[in-house]
Design a protein that fits this description.
266 residues; mainly alpha
Length: 266
């Protein structure tokens, strides 16, 4: 009887299964964009000049350098702060949906602090990749796409594994996100991973060939930043991936004691 009563509650909790850190991050994005909506055009431009990632900021010979705000400090913080700015509500919505889908999986696996640190470094990697190819460009780069691309790369490492959320013998609840990640070389032999990679890189190559503007404004998110964030996610994943033995132990315990009702998302 106890097991029968636990199942409906488990289904209700899984209807909206985003970690608090993901919801809080998206809420922060929305609050910042709402604040910008009420700024004057000049004030909003000042925000971009101070917090957007602008490659020309790093070119000592750039004629645009006198217009930049934030001084030497902005050369550091804009590697991250650009990810908190978005071009319009559609841009914000697309990034929010992507973070809910992929960021949630990574946050459940990494925990809040590792998730935030990992995402920040992927954003930095995306900005660095863009800078390497556009050193003197004055066009600002904004948006969380590079960080989300890193989250996609991290999710790819375990989502399709046996016991993972999209793999064979998939588990339910939190245990699904603790599926052990095989080495990258082994993962690349998984057809699902290869299809995901082909689709992801194909989409970004299409962005690169056709360009990607945000509402016709000067700010944009370059495909190079997406790829930089994705590659950063692949490299950083094994450094941030926590040990999952404790989850496997709990899974084994639930098998050994089938009469004990499972805790939601445990």
């Amino acid at each position: 009887m106890r097991e029968h009563q636990s199942r409906p509650a488990d289904r209700r909790e899984r209807a909206f299964n985003a970690p608090a850190v993901v919801i809080a991050t998206i809420a922060l994005f929305a609050a910042i964009h709402l604040w910008r909506v009420f700024l004057s055009e000049d004030a909003d431009i000042a925000v971009l000049l101070r917090f957007a990632f602008i490659p020309a900021r790093y070119d000592p010979a750039s004629p645009y350098l006198p217009d930049m705000l934030g001084g030497e400090g902005a050369k550091l913080w804009t590697f991250l702060t650009y990810a908190f700015l978005h071009g319009d509500w559609t841009h914000l919505l697309v990034n929010s949906v992507a973070m809910l889908a992929f960021g949630s999986a990574v946050a459940w696996r990494f925990g809040s602090m590792r998730f935030l640190s990992f995402s920040a470094l992927c954003a930095v990697g995306g900005a660095a990749a863009h800078l390497a190819l556009h050193l003197d460009e004055p066009q600002p780069v904004i948006g969380a796409s590079a960080a989300i691309s890193g989250q996609m790369a991290a999710a790819m490492r375990f989502m399709f594994e046996a016991g993972g959320p999209l793999g064979a013998f998939r588990r339910r609840g939190r245990l699904a996100f603790s599926a052990p990640a095989v080495p990258l070389a082994t993962a690349l032999r998984n057809p699902q991973v290869l299809i995901f990679l082909l689709a992801w890189f194909g989409t970004n190559i299409a962005f690169g060939l056709g360009g990607m503007a945000i509402s016709g404004e000067t700010a944009s998110i370059a495909w190079e930043a997406h790829i930089g964030g994705f590659l950063g996610g692949l490299v950083l994943f094994p450094l941030f991936d926590p040990k999952v033995a404790r989850f496997r132990d709990r899974a084994d315990a639930s098998v050994a004691l089938p009469r004990r009702p499972p805790a939601p998302h445990d």
